[in-house]
From TrEMBL, chains A, B:
GO-annotated molecular function: lyase activity
Native organism taxonomy: Bacteria, Bacillati, Actinomycetota, Actinomycetes, Kitasatosporales
Alphabetically ordered keywords of this record: Lyase, Metal-binding
Family stated for the protein in its record: Belongs to the HMG-CoA lyase family.
Coiled-coil region list: none
One Pfam assignment: HMGL-like
Organism: Streptomyces composti
Domain called Pyruvate carboxyltransferase: residue spans: 23-290
Superkingdom in the source lineage: Bacteria
Full protein name: Hydroxymethylglutaryl-CoA lyase
Length: 317, 317
């Protein structure tokens, strides 16, 4: 049989009931997607990647991290990269692990920063060598100083559903850390399923508990990993609960260091395919985005794990 | 960082509201999954695959197809295979394209058969060399004769959402063919998104239209492909609409011949991961199922495309 000739570049648009009209995609490919790449990607390639992402219509692109170069060598070029892209007409948040990182980001004129907390003691210890409370105490002056300069602050919260050491994470424990991040001044949260184990009932339960704790859904972003193939159904559940900010990574770049499979972050293309079919506005040109991911995949020397990228670019698995 | 030591063999069980308590998984790996494999899988391997699938707790396993060997050489061993597995305590439906196929299936004692219709003229022409109505006319005596012998009949309907030649498929057109299949005596339907383009609003619209046309949800099965990564969110939508039969393929075997990517059928493991997390009974032992898919992948010489299989078996991509 031959391949069909009609264009299937977009799904049929049929809105489902009770979903938002617009979703803000928070693109993490340039930071979260690249940070675990062993071979250092040249700074000019990173800058071009971000420029191409911006040209697809993505409005929020996390650019880099001002973490100590010793911990994330891939992002040691943050000082070189940020000025290359700072003039793009998009939100360009950067990760800052501590006050030193904030200083570096502010010196370059960053207008949005993000801190990276943990919902579990085990991951706080492994990732930050601190207790959950000690990590929050470390972030307090970071958030306060950023706010004093009208710099927006996102609070990432990892291990919101399962933790590789502790197993399932109790919902009240996650709510407590969310409240602490908001109380210290974070403008928005990103609820991370860092190891990709969540399923829709768990997502619904956490979002319900946050609503009951007085957290407005407008400050909540969701950050699902596709390690077990669950990211998009969890995202759909979050949209049904009123969430309108979704983290994803162009081409599905990046992943969880605890799962050997490369399937980590939800691919922005797979997300956009679903949102376009639902008639939900994202502002993103899917064809340009696929082309960008194919271009980046060529630089990294392996195909994108995104199924939509593969289908639309006819990449072999 | 080191990998965690606690067991994450199962997601945390948190039921979502409005979902069924039990889902019948209709396993298609042995037929739909294998039929496009170029290298012929030995009949004893197929029989062992089906035995292992049955041992995981799967209750419905489509075994083979009594199509003419010229069209699907991989399944030319149907006469040898079926008797090898016929005594398993599971439902073992077989595909029958026409009366000749039905004769062959009945001669071996098959108690459940399936016919394969198309919602679109283009695919009916390409796959069956007939119009939609001509194909239905061909199935009429097949269904009538099966029913006369109390043999159950499933009606597959392909291209229910998008068609590679025609683009988006109008919902009324799909409803019409569904009604025709039920009116001629089919006990159940399988709504196929053969090229994987559907999104949740489209799924909701088709299921709503079928309900309004008087089709009971209890006879509807859904058959989603993961070509664009959408299968599980579409499945979740179908469950929210009351569907309780879901087609899937162990290890994600098989795929759509129109997409070059190997990511075709929804992987049974990815489905079971979601259903277990939702507290929905499937009767399936996920560990045994993953082991079965890893075993089959070794026979086929390439890793399973299922993300859950990869994560739980630590297969590299």
């Amino acid at each position: 049989m031959t391949t069909g000739t009609s264009s299937l570049g977009l799904p049929m648009t049929v809105p489902a009931e009770g979903l938002p009209g617009r979703v803000r995609i928070y693109e993490v490919g340039a930071r979260d997607g690249l940070q675990n790449e062993k071979a250092v990607v040249p700074v000019e390639v990173k800058a071009e990647f971000i420029r191409r992402l911006a040209a697809t219509g993505l409005g929020t692109i996390e650019a880099t991290s001002f973490v100590h170069p010793k911990w994330v060598p891939q992002l040691a070029d943050a000082e070189q990269l940020y000025p290359e892209v700072a003039d793009l007409p998009v939100e360009l948040p950067v990760l800052v692990p501590n006050e030193r990182g904030l200083d570096r980001a502010l010196a370059l004129g960053a207008r949005r920063v993000a801190v990276f907390a943990s919902a579990t003691e085990s991951f706080a210890k492994a990732n930050l060598n601190r207790t959950v409370d000690e990590a929050l105490a470390m972030f307090e002056p970071v958030v306060a100083r950023a706010k004093a300069q009208q710099v927006g602050v996102r609070g990432y919260l990892s291990m919101c559903f399962g933790d590789p050491w502790e197993g399932p994470v109790p919902v009240p424990q996650v709510v407590k850390v969310c409240r602490a991040l908001l109380d210290m001044g974070c403008d928005e949260l990103s609820l991370g399923d860092t190891i990709g184990v969540a399923t829709p009932g768990h997502v619904q339960a956490l979002l319900t508990a946050l609503r009951e704790a007085g957290v407005p859904v407008s400050v909540i972003g969701v950050h699902f990993h596709d390690t077990y193939g669950q990211a998009l159904s969890n995202t759909l559940t979050a949209l049904q609960q009123g969430v309108t900010t979704v983290d994803s990574s162009a081409g599905g770049l990046g992943g969880c260091p605890y799962a050997k499979s490369a399937t980590g972050n939800l691919a922005t293309e797979d997300l956009v395919w679903m949102l376009q079919g639902l008639g939900i506005d994202t502002g993103v040109d899917l064809g340009r985005l696929v082309a960008t991911s194919v271009w980046m995949a060529a630089h990294l020397g392996r195909p994108s794990p995104s199924r939509t990228v593969r289908a639309l670019s006819h990449q072999e698995q």
